[in-house]
Structure formats: C-alpha cells, structure tokens
Amino acid sequence: MRTLSSIALAAMLALAAPAAGPPAISAERLVRIDTVLQQYVDENRIGGAVGYVLQDGKPVYVRAVGWADKEAGTRMAPNTIFRIASQTKAITSVAVLSLMEEGKLSLTDPVSRYIPSFAASKVAVRTGAAVDIVPAKRGITIRDLLTHTAGISYGTDAAVAAMYEAKGLGPAAGYGWFTADKDEPICATMERLGTLPFVSQPGEAWVYGYNTDVLGCVVEKVSAMPLDEFIRTRITGPLGMKDTQFFLPPSQRARLAAVYSSAADGTIQRAPDGPRGQGAYVDGPRRSFAGGAGLLSTAQDYARFLEMIRRGGALDGVRILSPRTVALMTTNQVGTLHSPNGLGYGLGFETTDRFGANGLDSAGAFGWAGAYSSTYRVDPESHLVICFMVQMLPNTTDLGRKFPTLVYQALEP
User: Which domains does the chain have, with CATH numbers?
Assistant: First the structure.
C-alpha cells in the first residue's frame, strides 16, 4: 500500500510540474543561415530557396533568397509555390488515418477490399540473371502501405522496369512517381499497378514506391469523393492552407517556382519541360490526384500542417486527428527494416529514434523530403517545425542536409 501511494504521489507531482519550455534561439547565430543560402545563390548552385522555421507555432526564421524563376527575373518570395512531391505523403497519410478514426477502414484491411486487382499480388524474385514471378505470401494491408513495407517500388528496378513501362508506370512516369500528365483518375492507374509484380514480399522489407498513391485511391473509394476534394474539405481547408493543391490555376502561374538541375560542374541549369522537369502542374489534364507526390504548397502552408501534427492533431481550435493517432504516426513501426542505425518509419514519417542518427535532430523528431529537394523536420523536444523549400531535380548540393543543422546550431540552453 505504501509503495502504491508513493507511485501515485510521484505521478501527481509529475503532472503538476511545469512543462519544459523551448530552448532559446540565438538571432546572431541564425544569421549564419542567411550567409550560407546567399552563398549557394551567388555561386549559381541553386536558383533560390525559402527557409521557414516555427518555434511553438511562431515564426522565428523566414527568408526567401535568390530567384523563383531566374530567366523570367522573378525573385523568390515567402509565398512562392513549390512542387512538394513526396511531402504529399504525410498529408495523404493523415487522410487515411482520419477515415480510420471514423471507423470507415482499419489498418489491417486488405487493399484488395478497395482495389480488386491487388487480390492476386505477385512478386518478382531475382535468382542470378533470372527473374521469377511468384505469388505474394499474403495480402497487402493498409498498414503495409503506410509504413512502406508492402514491397511496392516505383517500378524503375531492373527486374520489373520493362513491365512497368509497358503499363505507363516506372520509366514511363518520369523518375517513376510522376503522374500529373496522366489523363486518367488515380484509381485507374492504381488498378493497373495491382496487375504488376512488386519487388519484395509484404512485410519483409522497407521499399519506397507507389504505396501512398495506392492509399490515395483507397481514400477516394472509401469517401466516395476525389482525393483533391477530400484533402481540401477535411485537411487543408480547415487548416487555412489556401496555397496547397494538386494543380495550379493559370492565374497563379507566376507564383510557381521554376525547377533547376545540377549540371556536371555543380552549377544550375533550367530543367526541361515534362515529367523530369517542370511537370504539368498548370497546363496538365488535372485528372490524376497523386497521393504520393502530386501536391503544390508554400513553406508557410506546409509548416502550418506540420504544426498541427506537432500539437497532437489540432491547431487553432481545429482538430484533424486525435493525439493517440498522431503518436502512432510519429513512432517507429518497422523496427530496423528502414534503417539499422537509429532511424525508423512510422505511418507517413521517418522517425529519429536516437540522438545522432539524423544530424542534430532530437530523439523523437520526425520528417521527410520531396523529390524536388524540399525537406522538413518536426522536433517536439525543441518545439520546432523546420521547412526548407527549393526546386532542384536532380540535385547534387548538400544544402538540404545543411539547413536543419544551421537551425539547430542556433539553439541555446
């Protein structure tokens, strides 16, 4: 009885103790970020970039440097719109989990319940120079897709590339993930994907690919509305994210940053039109809402979405997810399948499981990046949301790795 009383008293004291405040940020040390960003612009290694950092929801660093479109003479601005590619995955994952919270789907549901072609999933197994196509050992689940353990790649692997290209996927979709030029709904594309072999058995490996695009189709099937409408009415609209959408109105074309590529000498050149460059986000068919890589956004909009996650699923009186669901999203769910070195993967985010595993991230931080080289971190321990927006494809610079470090070095005890 005395032991139980002691435990109860300790718990009460812990709850009564004031929460640790955020670390201070040195304005003097933040200036280092300005210096580095401007250096990369001056050396012609990037066209331009936007850095956006929140601490406890308040902007502590907002900078736009360089050019949004160098050839057009358009300066980068805090409200410049970027192709966020795989940063879309976190938003689509929230859409799926909101349906889970309503009892409309379960993480253990087989995907074939919503996309029939997945009922006969197959796997390409390489044996020496030969490739055998074998049945999947079990059905792929919603959880497999959220954690990227379904065995589904982007179809550019040598073992399956020709088969994917013949179906308009893999090499026929830019670097594999681009569908903004497809004149068909995403579910038509995903039904076709289900007829192709995957590259690993479900649950046996962490494989990055079309997983979240498949989930986007699941959202459409379960909600009976297009993915863009679901995200607008259930996530971006309630959060006031006015500049986050799949395709840009022609009237806003001037706000969309141009895409640049790293040349052999490390300087930039304008990326070509098409799926390996500027994309089809203004003049495209506007029919394919790709939940894995299709959204456009601004640094401010995306930081607002992340702040909602940091606060446990609610922001400014609007609740999108429950705190328990957010905890599930941001906790490693795959053991060492993603990395044996302290990085995990939750339900839509990469997780930092120990200090030192990902630069200066605190244990418990989470984040990801986009193919056009944008990146983000959420660090609950430091009360931080870190967004870095740039448009480089391909990108040989190290600026995406440097930006979070430059933010962290400005923290003080």
Answer: 24-91+231-412 (3.40.710.10), 105-225 (no CATH)
